[in-house]
Amino acid sequence: MGMGGIAAGSSALVGSGAFTSVSANRNVAVAVVDDPNALLGLGGCEGSPNGQYARIQDNGAMAIDLSESNNQIDGEGVNPDALTKIRDVFQIKNQGTQETAVWIDVDPVEDRVEFYLHEQELDENENAKIIGYDNRVCLDVGDSVCVSMDIDTRGLGSDFTNEDGVNNLMKKLGDSDHEMVINAMAGECPVEGSEGSSEPTSDTLWGITRGNGAGELKSFTVPNPSVDSEIIDFDDSGRQNFPNGLAYDPENERWYYGDTTDAGDGVLHLYDGSVTELQQITDGEDLAGATWDDGNYYFIPQGTSKLKRAEIDESDGSVKSVDDVVDVGSNMTLGDLAIAHENSVLYGSSSSEFFKVELSENTDDVSSSDVETIITSGEAVGKQIAFGVGDDGKVLYGHDANSGAWFEIELDGGASQLDESTETFTDIA
């Protein structure tokens, strides 16, 4: 946990805090070190010119200083009656040994000083809040985020002098201690309603309708599965279980799926408002079970047990390469895959088992020892699966493509049937 006070005027924003303490109901040895070297590393944002506003004080604590006391800058403070936006000021880095959730608590909560993650920090189209536990961000070991800030002095006049004669915006706003607390807590990931550190778990899932002449891409909402609307009718094959191999890229709003063309079976397609036939990515088998993770389309060709990965070019959605990942030991027959992004675990449901695979960024690092059969019978077997938001957080949903029934699947293989049923989908994502 890092803690700091804020003394901010139209000419000063100063934080005087540090990584402070760790406590547990057992014997603990704790070393106190300077912020950049602590288990929660705090310091100026690396590579950002605005990182100079975050300085390390003589006591080793990080301070956010936009005043004349900061000899790293030329100015004396922010402008009165203005909204000042400063991108990528300070950095929070997980230098511990396990995934950690981080968030900021700041007082006063009057929307005059706002901390957030800039959209380009997340490769997203909008900024992300980091104030408050509900806006916590998960950091893997060694990962970091840069925090941006807005300071709003509009409508506050120009006199920010407190009773001690110090120009101080925070005293203008109230009488509290004006603490900024940077919190870090292990065991709080994944974020409720989140698939990962920056990916919100969707209450919208997608499915391809099943049946001869069907093949429509439709959206449906969870946690109470209900079909919303048709996106497009893909069907050009007339086969009951195809198109299939559906996966959704949320960052670029692209759907990928497999279908048969003149080039043969197992041809990957892209839909982003129009359909693009990409290329055959199997050895002639159909595409059935598939899922998406961080620029990669994972799939198991129909009737085989070989998990493969197609790396996708973000710029145009084309296939850059196709690599073998691992033999999962169970032939995929109209099953499905889903990935828990926060820990890179792939779950699979085939006609014979429910299994998982511990993934790695380097496909060569995945071996048979990373594959585990969870159960070989029960409602988790033989389902179309996808992660989505539930009543109590993130849920792995299972869909019976024959009956239209829906299930909540526990990651240990347990499952409970939901009250709702829908039309049948040959694949969901």
Features:
five-stranded antiparallel β-sheet; 429 residues; mainly beta; six-stranded antiparallel β-sheet; 2 domains; 33 strands; disordered N terminus; 2 helices; single chain; Neuraminidase
> Which oligomeric state applies?
single chain
By helix and strand content, what is the structural category? Answer: mainly beta
Number of helices: 2
Terminal Cα span: 37 Å
Secondary structure blueprint with pairings:
Layout: E1 2-9, E2 12-15, E3 18-19, E4 40-44, E5 54-56, E6 62-64, E7 83-94, E8 100-106, E9 113-117, H1 119-122, E10 128-129, E11 137-139, E12 144-152, H2 169-173, E13 179-186, E14 204-209, E15 216-221, E16 226-233, E17 244-249, E18 254-261, E19 264-271, E20 275-280, E21 287-293, E22 296-301, E23 306-312, E24 319-327, E25 336-340, E26 345-349, E27 354-358, E28 371-375, E29 384-390, E30 393-399, E31 405-409, E32 415-421, E33 425-428
